[in-house]
Amino acid sequence: MKTIIKPLLLATLLTTGLNGCSTSHEVPIASGYQTYIQVGERFKHLNLTDINDNKVTFEAEHKKLVILFATWCSDSQRLLNELQASSLLNMSNLTIIAIGREQNQTTLKQFNDTQALPIHFVADPNRTIYNSYANKGIPRLILLDEQNNVLQTLIGEQPNTLSKLRWN
């Protein structure tokens, strides 16, 4: 009996533990991840307010990096740590907006108290924003040009996703 239970337990742990930060219990399959905005399309949410009640500006002279994430997600945490260590934070012509899927202002403020990232955090407690751009999978990156059109979309469940950004 023990020889049957151990392999079943291991199989269960592997299939539930390799989900990345999906909220479903199925193993993510790249083809199952849908992105609802394509390269060249205009970003839909240009009137956002961050957790400090500041209006997020989508200035014409800046590119924008939108990150859809969750504070509890290890892949999101890794991506934000990579962002913290990157030169992207020093780019004067880049605005970075992190949208917390199913996160409220209080949770995001507490999270950023530990992260101290100089970016805009925006709460999306009901997935209203997230659901406009994807069906599942976080973190998601959407790179916008100066006119707020999509240059690139990425799913950041693997290390070094930021190095895959194409700036032109």
UniProtKB/TrEMBL annotation:
Ranges for domain Redoxin: 38-163
CDD domains: TlpA_like_family
InterPro entries in UniProt: Redoxin, Thioredoxin-like_sf
Protein name per the record: Redoxin domain-containing protein
Organism the protein comes from: Pseudoalteromonas peptidolytica F12-50-A1
Superkingdom classification of source: Bacteria
Pfam families noted in UniProt: Redoxin (PF08534)
